[in-house]
Amino acid sequence: RCGFIAIVGRPNVGKSTLLNRLVGQKLSITSRKPQTTRHRIMGVDTRDNYQAVYVDTPGLHIEEKRAINRLMNRAANSSLTDVELVLFLVDGTHWTKDDEMVLNKLARSGLPTVLLVNKVDNVKEKTELFPHLQTLSEKMAFVDVIPVSAKHGTNIDVVEQKVRDAL
Ligand code: GDP
Ligand code: MG
Question: How confident is the model at residue 115 (pLDDT cuts 50, 70, 90)?
Answer without folding.
Answer: very high
